[in-house]
Design brief:
Number of helices: 7
Number of strands: 11
Order of helices and strands: EHEEEHEEHEEHEHHEHE
CATH architecture of the largest domain: 3-Layer(aba) Sandwich
Shape: globular
Radius of gyration: 19 Å
Length: about 280
């Protein structure tokens, strides 16, 4: 098929999903000798308009995995504001060393319903947003090599296609029905939906970087310690704070974080599938 442009489309509060999406898109574009563009819908200001693609586009669409699915607060925007127009698409789920669960199935289904044609898919292991030690440094050199090799295969397949492919087969529950249940160190469900980041007043310089980085626009610009809206536990404010002033102290959340670091310390393997 004729491809004129490769797109990297992503939601990436702490940057790992962005890195995976751009590496894939840039490598595919290099192989096809076409330009690459990016569409980052992480921040509220970027979610104010609709977007359309066309049949000569190839879209690398990457999402982080939250509780085994796409971030649920972003799903309505994705469903309502993007039109594929016959573009080829590669759904990518970036997971924090535990599992991608049903995120790929969900993203594949949303893209197909929006007029994209999914031709390949990947689940990419990355450092967990909650942790400094869980899959620390990933995507690492080996991950980048695997991503680049997969991108070249995607480019070759896209160029060889004579017509639209069937939706790429993805392991998981179709349709997804449940979210992953976070558990604590004791194995019981850990409930921390209402947990919000706290601010160390002595460390905070009131630079407002956390205000600018919050994907939900939930931090009060007049008082960075005041979280006025919903918190999706993305850790953008924690990871992006140069003063290390943001933190979570909710006991259930900390128990879940400790469980992840205890039970999922092994090197998780990424998955790459062509249709």
């Amino acid at each position: 098929m004729k491809i004129d442009k490769v797109w990297a489309v992503y939601f990436s509060p702490v940057g790992n999903t962005e890195r995976a999406a751009l590496l894939l898109a840039e490598e595919v574009a290099l192989k096809l000798n076409v330009p690459v563009a990016k569409l980052d819908y992480t921040l509220p200001a970027a979610r104010q308009e609709a977007h359309s693609f066309c049949e000569t586009d190839l879209v690398i669409w990457a999402t982080p995995v939250y509780a085994g699915r796409m971030p649920n607060k972003l799903v309505p925007y994705v469903k309502e504001s993007f039109r594929g127009g016959g573009a080829l698409a590669v759904p990518v789920a970036v997971f924090g060393n535990r599992s991608a669960d049903d995120a790929l199935v969900e993203l594949r289904n949303v893209l197909e319903a929006n007029g994209f044609h999914t031709m390949a898919t990947a689940a990419v292991a990355a450092q967990h947003a909650f942790s400094d030690v869980l899959a620390a440094g990933r995507p690492d050199r080996l991950d980048r090599e695997q991503l680049a090799a997969f991108a070249r295969r995607v480019a070759e397949q896209a160029a060889a296609l004579q017509g639209y492919p069937a939706p790429v087969a993805v392991p998981g529950n179709d349709p997804p029905e449940a979210y992953y249940t976070p558990r604590g160190l004791d194995g019981n469900p850990a409930v921390f939906l209402k947990a919000k980041p706290k601010t160390d007043g002595e460390r905070c310089s009131r630079c407002s970087e956390c205000v600018r980085r919050c994907p939900m626009g939930s931090i009060n610009p007049e008082d960075p310690a005041d979280v006025t809206g919903i918190c999706i536990k993305c850790h953008a404010c924690v990871k992006r704070c140069a003063q290390h002033a943001k933190y979570f102290d909710d006991e259930a959340f900390l128990s879940h974080k400790a469980m992840l670091e205890r039970d999922f310390a092994r090197r998780a393997e990424s998955m790459f599938l062509l249709g």
